[in-house]
Design a protein that fits this description.
The complex is a heterodimer of chains A (about 650) and B (about 230). With about 650 residues, chain A is mainly β. Chain A has 9 helices and 33 strands. Chain A folds into 3 domains: about 10-90 and about 120-140 and about 175-200 and about 215-335, Porin (Beta Barrel); about 345-455, Sandwich (Immunoglobulin-like), CATH 2.60.40.10; about 460-655, C8orf32 fold. In chain A, the strands form 6 sheets. In chain A, strands 1-2-3-5-6-7-8-10-11-12-13-14-15-16 form a 14-stranded antiparallel barrel. In chain A, strands 19, 20, 21, 23 and 24 form a 5-stranded antiparallel beta sheet that branches. Chain A has a 5-stranded antiparallel beta sheet with strand order 31-32-30-29-33. In chain A, helix 3 packs across helix 7 and helix 6 (about 535-540) packs across helix 7 (about 545-560). The longest helix of chain A has 18 residues, at about 625-640. Chain A is rod-shaped, with a radius of gyration of 40 Å. Chain B has 2 domains: about 1-90, no CATH class; about 95-110 and about 140-235, Serine Threonine Protein Phosphatase 5, Tetratricopeptide repeat (Alpha Horseshoe), CATH 1.25.40.10. Helices cover about 45% and strands about 15% of the residues of chain B. In chain B, helix 6 (about 180-190) packs antiparallel against helix 7 (about 195-205). Classes of the chains: A mainly beta (about 650), B alpha+beta (about 230). Chains A and B meet through helix 5, strand 31, helix 8 and helix 9 of A and helix 2, helix 3 and helix 5 of B.
Chain lengths: ~650, ~230
C-alpha cells in the first residue's frame, strides 16, 4: 500500500490528510479539508493524534495539540469525528488613547483581540461503488472579537477618570461541504469538492466589524492523483479561485511497512510570492500505525506588523493557511485501535487437488493444485485476489487470477503456484503447509486457511503420461550433447544419405546406439511412480518403459526430431508407454522406409502437411527395426483397428 | 473374364454372417484364383496365398488382375475380388457411434499448432539423390486396390468399416484423393449412414478436385440437398 504526502491548496490546505494512496488506503485521510468523500478500508476504530510546533518570531516554538480524531468504517459507511484545538489563528492589537480634561491628561492602552478557531468536525462518507465514493463534512467554527473601550464615569467633574471595559462578540457557525472521489484505475483517481458550500450561523455578525469575520466565498476544488509507477505518486489540485497545489511522493518498502518521502508546493491567491510555500514530509506506514512528520515553510516574511485596517481589508480566508501563518512542524500519528479489516469474503473449504511434483513445475502455472469454495459475505460484488504460499517451495506469495464474486455467491476459486528454483527439493518427500489467502480491497487478507500438502521428490511422477514431457525436457543440454556426440561419429554416413531420409537415419543411428547397453529394469516397489531423468537412464544403463521413452524422446527432441508419447491404457489401470516419432517423410515417400502401411501413422504437421510417424516400442532393446515392428504391431491393433484412439483407450501426447 | 465377375458377384450376394469381434479373427482360405498375396503383421515381404491356408486379422490380402480369394470364418464366407486389397481385421461390424468417434479422431490426429519443433531443426543432412520407391506402398494402384477392398466391405454390409478403410487410404495414399467417382461413392455412403454433416464436408472437399461438368453439377445438387436437410434438422 502506497501512501503519499498531500498538501491541498489554500482553502483545502491540509496538514492532516497527508497520508494518502492513489487508490484506497488503510488509514483514512485524517482530513475534512481536502475531500470529504475519501474512505478508509479498515474496519478498525482509528485514533489519530497530531502534535505540532509553530515557529513564532525568532526561535520561539509554540507547541500545541493540533488534532485528535476517531473514526470507524461500517460496511460502506464511514464516520469520522475530530477535535481540533490546534486550528486557530489569533491577532491582537493595542491602541493608545489619551484623553485630556482640563489640566489632567489620561492615557489608556486599549487592546483588540481577535480569535478564529475551528473546534470540531464531523464527517460521513459513503462508498457507492468500487470506483466511486462521496462524502459530507460539517465543521464547527468559533470567532471571538474582544475590544477594550473607555467608559466615562460621571462625577463631580463632568467626566472623571475613565474606566476600561471589554466588549466581546462571538460568532459560532457550522460549515458544510460535499466531495466526491472517482478512481477509474487503481493508479488514477479524481476528486471534486466544494468549499464553503453552506454556513449556518448560530449568532449574527460582528457589529460594525464585519471585515474581521472569516471570509466564506464559495469555491470548488478539483484534483487528480496518479501513480506513474509503483511507489511513486504525483498529484495536482486546483481551486476555482486560482489557488493550486502539486506534489510528488516516493516510497520504499521497509520491514513490512513503507517509508515515503515527498514534497508539495502550493500557490495561494491571497499570499505572495506566486509559490507561497513548500511542504516536505516523511512518513512510515504499517498496517497498524502510521507516523509522519510534515513541515511547512513559507517563502514570505511572517513577522507581520501592520495596521488592523489591513486585516479588515484582506480578511482571513483560511484559519490554518493565510499570510499570517507561521512555519510549522507537525507530528502525525495514526493508530488502529482494533486490527480487523472488514471481511468481504471467506473460505468455506479448500480442497487440495494434487500433491506437488516438483519436476512438473510448469504444470502448476496452468493447472490448479487446489481449489477453494469462497463465499462473498458482503452485499456488493467483490474482486478477489487469491494467493497461496507453500512452505518449502515458495519464496513469496503466489497470486492466482482475480475472480469477481457477486454478493452472496459461492464460487470455486483455483489456486496455482510457481516452484522456486532455489527451493526445489532433492530426494526427500515432505509434508508441508499450503497457506491460502483471499485478498480483496484490503491490503491485508480477508481470510486465510492452511492445509497440509505432500511435496514429492524430483523423480516422483503423478502417473499421467501427458506429464512425462517435463522429465524429458528437464535437461536438454545433456541430451543434446549425447545425441550430437553420436551423430558426429556417423557424419560421413549421414552426409551421403538422401535428404528425405536424413531424419529417419538419425532416428535409426541414435536408437541403435542408445539401446546398445540398455537393459529393461522395473521401477522399485513403491507407492509412487518413479521416473528417471534422461541422464540418469543413460548413466544407469536402463529403466522401465517410462524411463526409456523419456530418455529417447529427450535425445530426439534435443536434436529437433518430434516425438509423442503413446499411452496405452488397460482395464486393470496399468498403462504402457511407447513413442511415436516423426520421420518428416510425406505419405508419398513412405516406400523409402517400408513396404507395409501398417507400420506408420499419418499426422498433419503445423503447416497442414501430412507426415509419417512411426511407433517405437522402447522396451524392445535389440535394434530399431525390431522396436519399430513391435511398436507398430501394437499401435495398429490397439489404436487403429480397435479404435483405441477414437475411444480414448490409446492417447497420443505430443512432447513439446 | 465376364464369367468370373458373375461368379464373384453371386458369391458376394450370398455373403453370410461374420462375427463382429475382430480381435482374434482366423480365416480359412477356401479358394484362390489367380495371384493373391498376403502381407503378414509388420512383415516387409509379401507371401503367396494358398488354398487351405489359415490367415489371421493382422494380415493384409492383395489380389491381382483376374484373381480373387474366398475366405470362410465360423461358417461365414467373404470373397475379395480382383484388384483389391483389404486388412482382414476390418471385416467386422462396428457401431455408428464408434464410427463417429473414429471420424472425430481422424479430425484431431493433427499435432497441436503450437508445436513448432519441426521449425527448430534447421540442420540438413544428406543430399538430393534419386531414390527407388517400392512399387506397392505409395503406388496409386495400390491405393485404388485398397479402395476396392473398402467398396467390397460396404457392399457386404460393413459400411462403417468401409468408411474407415477409405479414410485411412486417402490419408496414406493421397494420390487416390483425385479419383472423384470413388470419393463420391464413399461420401454417398456417409449419407446413407445418416451422417449428413460428414457427407456434406466430404462433398465440399471433393469440389476442390478437378471435376467434369457433370460431376460438378451432380456435386452441387448433392451439396444443396444435404445442406437443406442439415438446416431442417436444426
Amino acid at each position: 500500500m502506497f501512501t503519499q504526502t498531500n498538501l491541498y491548496a489554500q482553502q483545502s490546505f491540509d496538514l492532516y490528510g497527508n497520508l494518502r494512496t492513489s487508490g484506497r488506503q488503510t488509514f483514512r485521510l485524517n482530513s475534512l479539508e481536502s475531500n470529504p468523500g475519501n474512505l478508509s478500508d479498515a474496519k478498525s476504530w482509528e485514533l489519530s493524534f497530531i502534535y505540532g510546533g509553530i515557529f513564532a518570531s525568532g526561535s520561539q516554538l509554540a507547541n500545541d495539540i493540533f488534532l485528535v480524531s476517531l473514526s470507524k468504517r461500517i460496511s460502506d459507511h464511514y464516520l469520522y469525528f475530530r477535535f481540533t484545538p490546534g486550528i486557530k489563528q489569533e491577532f491582537s492589537a493595542n491602541t493608545q488613547k489619551t484623553i485630556s480634561s482640563g489640566d489632567s491628561t489620561i492615557t489608556e492602552i486599549l487592546s483588540t483581540f481577535i480569535s478564529y478557531q475551528e473546534k470540531i468536525g464531523l464527517g460521513y462518507s459513503l462508498q457507492i461503488t468500487n470506483k466511486f465514493s462521496a462524502g459530507l463534512s460539517l465543521r464547527y467554527f468559533k470567532q471571538i472579537l474582544r475590544k477594550d473601550d473607555l467608559e466615562f464615569v460621571y462625577g463631580e467633574n463632568i467626566f472623571a477618570e475613565p474606566k476600561t471595559i471589554a466588549i466581546s462578540e462571538k460568532i459560532n457557525f457550522w460549515r458544510g461541504d460535499l466531495g466526491i472521489n472517482y478512481s477509474p484505475l487503481e493508479t488514477l483517481s479524481f476528486n471534486l469538492n466544494t468549499i464553503n458550500l453552506f454556513c449556518l450561523n448560530e449568532n449574527g455578525n460582528f457589529n460594525d466589524n464585519e471585515g474581521l469575520e472569516l471570509r466564506k466565498q464559495k469555491h470548488l476544488s478539483a484534483g487528480v492523483n496518479f501513480m506513474p509507477r509503483y511507489n511513486m505518486n504525483i498529484y495536482l489540485n486546483y481551486e476555482s479561485n486560482n489557488s493550486a497545489s502539486a506534489g510528488l511522493n516516493y516510497g520504499i518498502n521497509l520491514r513490512g511497512g513503507k517509508i515515503i518521502a515527498g514534497v508539495s508546493a502550493y500557490r495561494d491567491v491571497y499570499q505572495n510570492p506566486f509559490i507561497s510555500g513548500i511542504s516536505p514530509s516523511i512518513s512510515y506506514s504499517s498496517q497498524l500505525f502510521n507516523v509522519s512528520i510534515v513541515g511547512v515553510k513559507y517563502f514570505s516574511d511572517r513577522n507581520i506588523v501592520e495596521p488592523i485596517s489591513n486585516l479588515i481589508k484582506t480578511g482571513i480566508h483560511n484559519i490554518l493557511n493565510n499570510k499570517y501563518s507561521k512555519d510549522k512542524l507537525l507530528l502525525n500519528i495514526n493508530i488502529a485501535l482494533s486490527f480487523t479489516p472488514e471481511k468481504l469474503v471467506e473460505f468455506k473449504d479448500v480442497k487440495i487437488l494434487s500433491e506437488i511434483y516438483p519436476t512438473l513445475d510448469e504444470l502448476y502455472t496452468t493447472t490448479a493444485f487446489a481449489t477453494a469454495k469462497v463465499i462473498n459475505i458482503s452485499d456488493q460484488t467483490v474482486n478477489v485476489k487469491p494467493a497461496s504460499f507453500i512452505e518449502g517451495i515458495n519464496t513469496e506469495q503466489i497470486f492466482s487470477p482475480i475472480i469477481n464474486i457477486a454478493a452472496g455467491d459461492t464460487v470455486d476459486v483455483p489456486f496455482y503456484t510457481i516452484i522456486s528454483d532455489q527451493l526445489k527439493p532433492n530426494n526427500k518427500r515432505t509434508i508441508s503447509q499450503a497457506n491460502f489467502y483471499l485478498i480483496t480491497v484490503n491490503s491485508d487478507y480477508d481470510d486465510q486457511i492452511s492445509k497440509p500438502i505432500l511435496i514429492n521428490d524430483m523423480n516422483s511422477w503423478d502417473g499421467k503420461v501427458s506429464n512425462l514431457r517435463y522429465f524429458s525436457k528437464y535437461d536438454y543440454s545433456y541430451s543434446t550433447k549425447f545425441a550430437k556426440n553420436i551423430l558426429k561419429e556417423y557424419k560421413a554416413e549421414l552426409d551421403n544419405i538422401a535428404e528425405e531420409l536424413a531424419v529417419f537415419s538419425k532416428i535409426k543411428i541414435l536408437f541403435n546406439t542408445f539401446v546398445q547397453h540398455m537393459i529393461y529394469v522395473s521401477d522399485p516397489r513403491s507407492s509412487v511412480e518413479f521416473v528417471q531423468f534422461p541422464q540418469e537412464t543413460i548413466d544407469r544403463k536402463g529403466g522401465d518403459c517410462d524411463d526409456l521413452s523419456v530418455a529417447f524422446s529427450s535425445i530426439l527432441e534435443s536434436v529437433g526430431i518430434q516425438t509423442a508419447f503413446v499411452d496405452y491404457k488397460s482395464e486393470d489401470g496399468i498403462s504402457h508407454v511407447n513413442l511415436l516419432i516423426n520421420t518428416g517423410l510425406s505419405p508419398d515417400a513412405a516406400s523409402l522406409i517400408t513396404n507395409n502401411d501398417k507400420k506408420y501413422y499419418v499426422r498433419k504437421n503445423s503447416r497442414d502437411k501430412d507426415e509419417l510417424w512411426i511407433p517405437i516400442e522402447m522396451t524392445s532393446l535389440a535394434d530399431l527395426e525390431t522396436a519399430w515392428n513391435v511398436g507398430a504391431d501394437k499401435f495398429y491393433k490397439e489404436a487403429v483397428e480397435n479404435l483405441g484412439l477414437a475411444k480414448g483407450n490409446v492417447q497420443v501426447i505430443d512432447n513439446y | 473374364m465376364k464369367k468370373i465377375n458373375l461368379i464373384v458377384t453371386a458369391i458376394i450376394l450370398i455373403f453370410l454372417y461374420m462375427p463382429s469381434s475382430a480381435q482374434t479373427q482366423e480365416f480359412i482360405v477356401e479358394k484362390v484364383t489367380g495371384k493373391v498375396s498376403i502381407l503378414r503383421g509388420t512383415d516387409e515381404n509379401y507371401q503367396e496365398v494358398k488354398s487351405g491356408q489359415i490367415l489371421n486379422g493382422t494380415d493384409l490380402l492383395v489380389t491381382d488382375e483376374n484373381s480373387f480369394i474366398q475366405l470362410s470364418r465360423n461358417g461365414g464366407r467373404f470373397l475379395l475380388k480382383a484388384n483389391s486389397a483389404l486388412g482382414l481385421n476390418f471385416i467386422k461390424a462396428i457401431s455408428i457411434n464408434d464410427l463417429l468417434l473414429a471420424l472425430t479422431a481422424e479430425e484431431v490426429r493433427s499435432i497441436p499448432k503450437n508445436n513448432s519443433a519441426t521449425a527448430k531443426n534447421t540442420a540438413v543432412y544428406g543430399k538430393k539423390i534419386g531414390l527407388e520407391k517400392n512399387n506397392k506402398v505409395n503406388d496409386l494402384n495400390f491405393g485404388l486396390k485398397k479402395l476396392n477392398g473398402a467398396r467390397q466391405l460396404a457392399e457386404s454390409g460393413y459400411k462403417e468399416s468401409a468408411v474407415l478403410v477409405a479414410k485411412e487410404t486417402y490419408r496414406k495414399y493421397p494420390s487416390t484423393k483425385s479419383r472423384v467417382n470413388e470419393r463420391i461413392y464413399f461420401a454417398d455412403l456417409l449419407l446413407r449412414l445418416g451422417l449428413k454433416n460428414e457427407a456434406l464436408s466430404e462433398y465440399s472437399d471433393i469440389k476442390s478436385q478437378q471435376l467434369t461438368i457433370d460431376q460438378k453439377n451432380s456435386l452441387n445438387k448433392k451439396i444443396e440437398e444435404v445442406s437443406l436437410a442439415v438446416t431442417s434438422d436444426k
